[in-house]
Amino acid sequence: MERVDSIITAGMVLPSPLTAPIHDGAVAIQNGLIVDVGPKEAVLSRYDAARLLNRPSSLLMPGLINCHTHAAMTIFRGMADDLPLKIWLEEHIFPAEAALTPELVELGTELACAEMIRSGTTSFVDMYLFEDVVASVVDRVGMRAWLGEGVFDFSTPAFKDGANALQETERLLNKWQGHERITITIDPHTPYTCREELWLKAMKLADRTGALLVTHLSETEWEVQEMKARVGRSPVAYLDSLSLLNERMLAAHCVALSHNDMELLTRRGVAVAHCPESNLKLASGVAPVPALLRMNGRVCLGTDGAASNNDLNMFGEMRTAALLHKGVGRDPVVMSAPDVFAMATLWAADALHRPDIGRCERDCRADLVILNMDMPHMTPCYNPLSQIVYAANGAEVSDVLVNGASLMENGRLLTIDEARLLSRVKQLCLN
Ligand SMILES: [Zn+2]
């Protein structure tokens, strides 16, 4: 018998969107790594575990990956809704952000982590301000994250200009280098909020360090018209003219795309973080994701910040992504449950260049989620993938592990004092 840290048994194990579920399955975990997956009897006969977790009425699956968010914006949730984008941004969000402090970012990030863990997310990609504080929260809470300080032409509460923000990015790259769960990214905010010089500096830093470039791209028709007026090209064509598009770029939104833009994105291997709920709420439109997929584009899924969603629930996002394109395209076949689940797991891992996450398979990191299937809306279960995408809402999540460590067990958060957190948020935000 080989000794391992833990074994989880479950009524059903779903290794990936490409693999058939294992009934009465089990997973063996050692040093944060999945060392075996298979039928329960086989795994139990091979390994002796220090810790055994039995979940006979549950489904064990890979943790969800939120590929675009601004975690700390949870503190602005519901503050200003049902407004035109310009008024929403300029009269509500920007003034609120002008008063941002590291303490508020810490609180908002912890709130976001609590919400994400509770709804089955194990990894997220974050662009915001005071990202060093975000990293400290992620380090303490135990999630996996890709974090980048927002780089703008103008000053933010964190930095006086973009050059300073890039210096901070370089400091963060050094400070968090080698961390098991935290990866620093380089985050020029958009083509219209960063001048050419900043983009080129960001690219240089990315080339030197191998870090991912994370940005917002072609979110609205307004952005396309603005860039055409300024530089005579679409935002996508503009970044391509600077040789910035490559497979190490993760671009959020990509709603307003021409056919040429789509060809550029797919040919250069840019990964697109589709954020359907935020695009709907801000009335930006619908990203042409089925077309990108037909062109073999790389697509993953994100919630965007809670001010424009208003939650960070990837189950809701998967369902919206699956339904939206069917309705808009009048085609019930597009955006199938396996494809949408892949966008939140396998394809997200590909966008992040991490083949060892997003799957519950041997030699992958043990980033796992357990869903209680003994609930009316999850019964009967003919097809677990359909259940996950079309019926689940996150309330089924009972246990969450990242890197083999439990962050939630039997519905209780283990690394966050939830009662204290919620009372601090109410006190700080509503007074
Ligand atoms: Zn965003």
Q: Which stretches are low in confidence, meaning pLDDT under 50 for 5 or more residues running?
A: none
Structural class per helix/strand content? alpha/beta
Strand order of the largest sheet: 3-2-1-4-14-15-16-17
**What Rg is obtained from the alpha carbons, in whole angstroms?**
21 Å
Please give a structural write-up.
The protein has 431 residues and is an alpha/beta fold. It folds into 2 domains: 110 residues, Urease, subunit C, domain 1, CATH 2.30.40.10; 288 residues, TIM Barrel. It is 39% helix and 25% strand. It has an 8-stranded mixed beta sheet with strand order 3-2-1-4-14-15-16-17, with helices on one face. Strands 5, 6, 7, 8 and 9 form a 5-stranded parallel beta sheet that branches. Strand 2 and strand 3 form a beta hairpin. The radius of gyration is 21 Å and the shape is globular. The chain starts with a strand and ends with a helix.
Helix-strand blueprint:
Blueprint: E1 2-13, E2 22-30, E3 33-39, H1 40-46, E4 47-62, E5 64-69, H2 85-98, H3 102-118, E6 121-128, H4 131-141, E7 144-151, H5 162-175, E8 182-184, E9 187-188, H6 196-209, E10 213-217, H7 221-231, H8 235-241, E11 249-253, H9 259-268, E12 271-274, H10 276-281, H11 289-294, E13 298-301, H12 314-329, H13 337-343, H14 346-351, E14 368-372, H15 384-391, E15 397-402, E16 405-409, E17 412-413, H16 418-430
Parallel strand pairs: 1-4, 5-6, 6-7, 7-8, 7-9, 10-11, 11-12, 12-13
Antiparallel strand pairs: 1-2, 2-3, 4-14, 14-15, 15-16, 16-17
Helix pairs in contact: 3-4, 3-16, 5-6, 12-13, 12-15, 13-15
